[in-house]
Amino acid sequence: YYDDNTVIYLNGKWLSAKSAKTGLYQQSFHYGNGVFEGIRSYATDQGTKILRAKAHFERLLYSAKTMYIDLHHSVDEMIELTYQLLEKNNLKDAYIRPLVYTDERLGLQAESQSNLFLCAWDWSQYFDAGDLKLKVSPYCRPDPNSCHVDAKVSGHYVNSILATKDAHDSGFDDALLLDQQGHVAEASGANFFLQKDGVLYTPPKGHILPGITRSIVMEMAAANGIAVKEKLFKPDEIYGAQGAFLTGTAVEIKAIGTVDNKPFSRHWEDTFGATLQQQFQRKVRNQKVEYKKVRAA
Ligand code: PMP
């Protein structure tokens, strides 16, 4: 993630990643009370562009608000700092990680004082090449009555880490987590789309982080005339469907080959996911996208 030359932003200063320091008594460190984002930038004809920068920093502010954390920066300020960060590190196609961590406090009162840390690195491929093998996880997503599932809070990710470990230990690439009622929710760090009977289904808000890539895919699907329905469904509806894919900033659009070792009825190339994946790669680089009127089949 960093080397001798990497520059980071921390609380108003540009520092070398190797020499930057922080305290050991922060609430974030002990209890996971911090919020973060995952953002990508792409090289385009008009220079480096951060994809949906505004939406990501608005979500960061929203996540901070759910945890009563004061973040003393506006969306515009943070976007400007992020462009500076990319320039200082000579990065174009980059993965950007803003982290807001709370100050020193070891009691459980909400800590409002925050630190803003920005870093970026080259993370071209999140998963290895090839279609993903997903395992329906024995771990459920956090209950929306227990925490703000739609916020990107550091502590929520222990759930993702456990589910990923379980999936890897059983020879799978990633976990597909359900809600407490057994409906499909999302993968460890990405949203799930299912193509069935010529329609794209995706779980509704509730037990998921409503992804920004998920919104982009919904907009692109509409432009192609593909119907998208937000619907609760159980894993047995996946088996025998036409295809499926994950969406997320890190994973972008990624084909799923099997869920619990069961394949889909179509080759990836013949699914909506493949069309959207190609269009997405052009769109993020500001290249012209030819939307098709896809016939439901
Ligand atoms: N769900 C979870 C749990 C995630 O961590 C992510 C990655 N941020 C997503 C979904 C996808 O969200 P986005 O498209 O905004 O990256």
Structure characterization notes:
- It is a single chain.
- This protein has helices at residues 27-31, 53-66, 75-88, 157-169, 212-223, 272-283, and strands at 7-10, 13-16, 34-36, 39-44, 47-50, 94-102, 114-121, 132-140, 174-178, 184-187, 191-196, 199-202, 228-230, 243-248, 252-259, 262-263.
- Helix 2 packs across helix 3 (75-88).
- A hairpin with a 3-residue loop joins strand 14 (243-248) and strand 15 (252-259).
- The protein has six helices and 16 strands.
- The protein is globular, with a radius of gyration of 20 Å.
- Strands 8, 9, 10, 11, 12, 13, 14, 15 and 16 form a nine-stranded mixed beta sheet that branches. Strands 1, 2, 3, 4, 5, 6 and 7 form a seven-stranded antiparallel beta sheet that branches.
- The protein has two domains: 7-121, 2-Layer Sandwich (D-amino Acid Aminotransferase, Chain A, domain 1); 132-283, D-amino Acid Aminotransferase, Chain A, domain 2, CATH 3.20.10.10.
- By secondary structure, it is an alpha+beta fold.
- 24% of the residues lie in helices and 29% in strands.
- The site of 4'-deoxy-4'-aminopyridoxal-5'-phosphate (PMP) has 13 residues, from helix 5 and strand 14.
